[in-house]
Amino acid sequence: MEESDETAAEAALGMSAPFFVNSVLNAVDDVRYGAFEYCLQEGAPEAIGAATATQKAEELERGVISIHNLVKDVLDKRMSNWEKYCLRHCFAIPEGFLTCEDDIPAKKSLNDGNSDSDLDAELVSLRKKLEDANIESEELQKELSSLERQAECQRNLDSSMAELLKVFESKAFQDNFQDLVNVIPLFQRKLEGMKRKIVENIDDQIDWNVNGHHKRLASGFTARTEDSQDVVNVLKKY
Question: What stretch or stretches form a coiled coil here (predicted)?
Fold first, then answer.
């Protein structure tokens, strides 16, 4: 691209590569000059304050100037290479990136007042999307916490069920359970016998109240808790 085209493109895009490069070079020179100027001021005779201050100050000044010149030569070479690299690569505008016909529309778009309102509307839209994203993130976080609690409860339940299943599958439990199954008919017979004896005792009580048969009452109720002792023993083992 010719130099006139590059200048027009830079003007259309609102930038100036030489101005940027010169600003950086001037800033580096200012820092370098200020640093060595400070060293020279600190090495002045009044700053040293000794009998041979003038001689020492002159020697120090010569040393500082020599170092300054050495640093300046190195910096000049490095910054010259940096300047060439920036102009050739960093600020090189590709061919056809901006044509002359695009200069006027580009300038108008940059100076168009409506662009501010468009940017404001886009900013409002982005803020709304950000708020929605934050709300969705909070909801997802709550759902994640709920799922973690459910998973913890499920793990505890699975562990308890595994322990219970282990007990059910143990030989001692199977033996006790079989004993319980076997004793149920005996328990039912004992209950039926106790029920009959209770009924007989009630009849004896009625007969005693009517006829005063004390002797029959004394021998009427013979049901005892020993009748269910077999069942109790099995239940204790269970």
Answer: 116-157
Distance from chain centroid for Cα 100: 52
Same domain, 160 and 179: no
For residue 60, how many other CB atoms are within 10 A of its CB?
18
The boundaries of the domain holding residue 207 are: 170-237
Q: Is this prediction's pTM over 0.90?
A: no
The total number of structural domains that make up the chain? 3
Q: From 126, 146, 169, give the residue that closes a domain.
A: 169
How far is residue 7's CA from residue 13's CA, in Å, rounded to a whole number? 10
Alpha-carbon dihedral sign for residues 198, 199, 202, 208: negative
**197/220 Cα distance (integer angstroms):** 8
Could you tell me which of 105, 101, 81, 100 has the C-alpha nearest to residue 7?
A: 100
Element (H, E) at 159: helix 114-169
Quick one: pLDDT at residue 210?
A: 64
Res. 118 pLDDT band, cuts 50 70 90: confident
CA atoms of 205 and 216, how far apart (whole Å): 9
Please tell me the predicted confidence (pLDDT) of residue 4: 55
pLDDT band (50, 70, 90) for residue 138: confident
Contact 93, 10 (CB under 8 A): yes
Query: Cβ(198)–Cβ(157) under 8 Å?
Result: no
How far, in Å, CA of 103 to CA of 206, rounded?
125
Least Cα distance to 16 among 97, 65, 86, 114 occurs for: 86
Residues 44 and 20 in one domain: yes
